[in-house]
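request received
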Amino acid sequence: NAGVTQTPKFQVLKTGQSMTLQCAQDMNHNSMYWYRQDPGMGLRLIYYSASEGTTDKGEVPNGYNVSRLNKREFSLRLESAAPSQTSVYFCASSEAWDRGGNQPQHFGDGTRLSIL
Amino acid sequence: GDSVTQMEGPVTLSEEAFLTINCTYTATGYPSLFWYVQYPGEGLQLLLKATKADDKGSNKGFEATYRKETTSFHLEKGSVQVSDSAVYFCALSDRERGYQKVTFGTGTKLQVIP
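response:
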């Protein structure tokens, strides 16, 4: 009954380092999302994948890249980390839009990333 | 564009008090509305939802009614418990460019004291 699993849970990087955040879901959902959560700003969409094989930019994509590896997995990469990317990152998944309209999103527990 | 405004926190209540967290929205289409809850160190969990005007979502004693005329979706609970302490997010969802776009409020932290 895992749902959405994110790794790692915590990470500290130095400015300029790169890393990949991993996300996997076991609910057979078509759509997956990456958000960042910052104090006082709610959640902001970085990238999304409406279905396997497609990815698109969200509200704040600069400095990030994504890969939809297969239906289960959607990774987020920081190529050259900057202090402004210090945040909590959440992966989410949901049914596709055409399967009953607005379905709720299911979230992982987050990755807390600090960039020094 | 779409937006969600919810009351700022923190909201501090005594156990068994009545809870209201206000949420209003602006949207161009006919969105669905959600309340999510986030406990410390965890991701967001769906609390309740409403998909059309006048729908009432309910779960675990929490309720919210989709009011199109006032563009509101206020969260209420008649008697809060210490275990309800968390951050609550109001959100709306609509279709945009073929995907489910979700717009979140900034969250309201609730503290319930014994």
